[in-house]
Specification:
There is one protein chain. This protein has 186 residues and is of the alpha+beta class. The protein contains five helices and 14 strands. Strands 9, 10, 11, 12, 13 and 14 form a six-stranded antiparallel beta sheet that branches. It has a four-stranded antiparallel beta sheet with strand order 3-4-5-6, with no helix packed on it. A two-stranded antiparallel ribbon has the order 1-2. The protein starts with a strand and ends in a 10-residue tail after the last helix.
Amino acid sequence: MAIIGGELPTKVYSVGDAVGGTTLYSVFPDHVILDRSGAFETLRLLRAGGIGHLNGTKQASLAAERPAIYVDNRGRTVDKPPGRLEKLIRTVGSRDDRTGKMRGFLVYPVGSGAPLRILGLVPADLITEINGTPLDDPKRSQELLDQVQSAGAVSVTVERQNQKLSLVLNVEAAVAELPPDSPPLL
């Protein structure tokens, strides 16, 4: 299956489905093959710094018509490039099973996990406070997490194996350890 959009409405297609005036013939990690009445065409995925192409045609017009589509660290399509924190860690909201109240954000590695270690975090740490503010309200918690994107360093309270820890996350140092910037694009 592949997610295809552009001049058509964006939707999920399976091999054999009609895509405009073509048929989806096969799907690969970085491109799909379309069958246009026996003539095969390649449709490549969007890449950083440019847009994919359909046999080298329409590239300029598609670039002007279609904004870039980004994927966040949870695999969701978003309309902006991933922030610095999203390149370092993956966060998942956590709720208390009994009360349903938000407890904070569980953290998981992105890629090799090196930035997570540089921050002093381990997979499944639960961040319960940012700069002394509890992460118990979903909207406010997401706003605080978004503010970390531009911070050089931030103080957090973490629950790890039923123990509370106070850490200072040096976001700048972890960002410096990232490989050359290549935001994930569809």
